[in-house]
Design the sequence.
């Protein structure tokens, strides 16, 4: 069959993604990406270290990032994203900015990181108080709280799991349970679910409907910020960050407001 009349395939715009060696949620990233955009993923080299501050530092070294970005240059992406929350907040705000600069030097193209994208998203939504959910240990969670506080955002609640491996295996029900523990009624303007290896795509609309605040996740903000650099939009079902119409929730019935139903 002659298909030459189709004239395709249509040109694809590329987003390069540098992920840690243990990243297991490639498919989740794709769910936020419109049809005209392709993701080109590469991973940092394996190191035999469990999830910790030490691992965060190892997978975010500038030489490692530079080599990964240079490998992506072969497919000519228009932007590169570093998809790791802990690796991009472990050095504080100055460390995050230095990472972006190092990636941009290696690829001569715009660069974003997950933690930088988080701050960008909080600014976009005007968030000054945030609750945090993490799968991390206490020390890694404290480093995230310090990063957010350094940006002038108050952390009003936090729940963490203490995991050091296999984070991608956490079921949605556990993510939802942590969110309910972290958010006290009326205390937070938004919830952030950390770690690009933690599945979140399908729980965001559910949690926003229940908690009635924007719910951000690591993979969501990474894709949102990267696609923004291309002048296009991330896609997703009724998420406040992606859709302005999803930022207005109808008022709760008085009885629900008084008793905080669904938030225990």
Sequence:
């Amino acid at each position: 069959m002659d298909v030459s009349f189709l004239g395709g395939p249509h040109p694809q715009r590329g987003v390069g993604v540098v992920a840690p060696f243990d990243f297991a949620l490639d498919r989740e990233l794709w769910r936020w990406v419109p049809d005209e955009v392709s993701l080109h993923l590469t991973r940092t080299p394996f190191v035999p270290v469990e999830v910790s501050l030490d691992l965060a530092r190892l997978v975010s070294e500038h030489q490692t990032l530079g080599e990964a970005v240079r490998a992506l240059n072969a497919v000519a992406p228009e932007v590169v994203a570093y998809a790791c929350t802990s690796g991009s907040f472990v050095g504080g705000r100055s460390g995050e900015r230095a990472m972006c600069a190092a990636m941009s030097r290696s690829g001569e193209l715009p660069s974003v990181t997950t933690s930088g994208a988080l701050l960008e998203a909080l600014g976009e939504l005007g968030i000054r108080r945030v609750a945090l959910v993490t799968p991390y240990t206490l020390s890694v969670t404290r480093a995230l709280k310090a990063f957010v506080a350094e940006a002038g955002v108050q952390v009003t609640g936090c729940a963490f799991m203490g995991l050091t491996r296999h984070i991608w295996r956490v079921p949605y029900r556990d993510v939802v349970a942590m969110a309910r523990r972290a958010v006290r009624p009326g205390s937070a303007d938004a919830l952030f679910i950390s770690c690009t290896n933690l599945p979140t795509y399908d729980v965001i609309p559910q949690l926003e409907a229940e908690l009635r605040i924007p719910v951000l996740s690591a993979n969501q903000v990474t894709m949102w910020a990267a696609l923004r650099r291309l002048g296009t939009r991330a896609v997703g079902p009724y998420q406040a960050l992606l859709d302005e119409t999803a930022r207005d929730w109808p008022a709760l019935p008085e009885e629900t407001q008084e008793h905080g139903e669904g938030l225990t």
